[in-house]
Design brief:
The chain is about 35% helix and about 15% strand. By secondary structure, it is α+β, with helices and mostly antiparallel strands.
Length: about 190
């Protein structure tokens, strides 16, 4: 007596494999994209460090203007100004006025950056937004959008002075994603 699988049994098994594949594929694809964006963010740190060091050496000039000096230093990187686009927090909410930008610039590497300077006197003079994969999605803080606080004498990734637990919470699906800017640099990963 010959024993084998019927066409129905093989079809059922095939359908089960397809269902499992469709459930697992998006998760692994999302993890791969997140790892790629995080890696890009880490790699641009040396580029920004060079720009910020150049700016810091020019600060002795009495006509120093941080915004114009930043754009001047980044001029070789900026390809063109682009239309504004929508950026969301990691939890899907729309950012407040502090984290909205009027002008966006595409870089030679097809990333997008924007700077917002604050008028009122404060410790933080402005913020810088950097979208590592340009206008391509997901355009969310902590996924592909990261940022720096701009001070009078330095630039620091968002949340650099926050505790690891605060950074981890903010870099979860329920957080804003702002703290991912520093959390990924110190070795954290998306929760």
């Amino acid at each position: 007596m010959k024993r084998g699988f019927t066409i129905v049994e093989v079809s059922i098994l095939f359908v089960i494999f397809l269902i499992v594949a469709f459930l697992v594929a998006p998760l692994s694809l999302d993890d791969t994209l997140q790892a790629k964006n995080t890696s890009k963010w880490r790699s641009v740190q040396s580029d920004f460090a060079n720009v910020f060091n150049t700016i810091n050496t020019q600060k002795e000039n009495e006509n120093f203007n941080l915004t114009s000096e930043f754009y001047s230093a980044m001029n070789s990187e900026i390809k063109k100004e682009i239309e504004p686009y929508k950026i969301l927090f990691l939890n899907g909410t729309f950012p407040s006025g502090t984290y909205r930008f009027d002008k966006f610039y595409q870089t030679q590497a097809n990333s997008v950056l924007a700077v917002k300077m604050f008028d009122e006197p404060a410790d933080i003079k402005g913020i810088l937004m950097y979208d590592v994969n340009g206008k391509n999605g997901p355009n969310r803080w902590g996924k592909d959008v990261f940022g720096y606080n701009i001070y009078n004498d330095k630039f620091e990734p968002f949340c650099k002075n926050e505790s690891i637990s605060v950074q981890r919470q903010e870099c979860s699906k329920d957080g804003t994603g702002l703290c991912c800017s520093n959390y990924y640099l110190i070795g954290g990963s998306f929760e």
